[in-house]
Amino acid sequence: MPLIELNVNSEIYQVDIDPEETLLDVIREKIGLLGTKRGCDTGECGACTVLLDGIPVNSCIYFAIRADKKSILTIEGLGTPEKLHPLQQAFIRNAAVQCGFCAPGMLISAKALLDENPNPTDHEIREGISGNLCRCTGYVKIIKAIKEAAEMLSKEASA
Questions:
Q1: Does residue 134 share a domain with residue 105?
Q2: Tens digit of each residue's pLDDT (9 = 90 or more) over 47-82
Q3: How many domains is the chain built from?
Q4: pLDDT tens digits, one per residue of 35-56
Q5: C-alpha to C-alpha distance for 73 and 41, rounded to whole angstroms
Q6: Quick one: 139 and 93 in the same domain?
Q7: Could you give the CA distance from residue 138 to residue 116 in angstroms, rounded to a whole number?
Q8: Model-level pTM?
Q9: Calpha distance 60→88 (Å, rounded)
C-alpha cells in the first residue's frame, strides 16, 4: 500500500492507501473528517466537493493517490464554531440550509467562486454552484447568501 502525504485543512496526514481508494474515502474513513458527504458516488451531486489546491473537485471520483502532497480544504477547515466563515454566517442568516446534506459541498464551491470572483452576478453564482445539487431549498436563498457573503468579504478586505 502506498503511503501518501495529505495537507488537509493545514494539517499534515501520512496515510496508507489502496491505489484505487477515493479522496472521499480517505478523508472520511482514514482521517476521520465526516463533514464531506457521500452523495451519488458518481461526481454528479457535489455533496463531496473539496478544494484541492484551490480548485473544487468531486472527491468521490478523485483518486486519493493523485492528491499526494496537495493542499485540501474541507468544510471543517472553512471556519470554526467560534469564528464562522462569512459564507457560513450568510447561509445561516438567509436560511439557505435545510437538511444540511448539500451544504458542505455548496459552501466549498461558493468559496472557490468567491476566491476567483469576489463580486459575482446571480448568473455567475448559478454557474459557480452548478455542480452542486440541493433538493430541499431550491437556490434562491443560496444565491442570496452567497451574494451577502461576497459583500461581507469585500467589507473585510477594505477594512
A1: yes
A2: 999 999 999 999 999 999 999 999 999 999 999 999
A3: 2
A4: 999 999 999 999 999 999 999 9
A5: 19
A6: yes
A7: 24
A8: 0.95
A9: 23
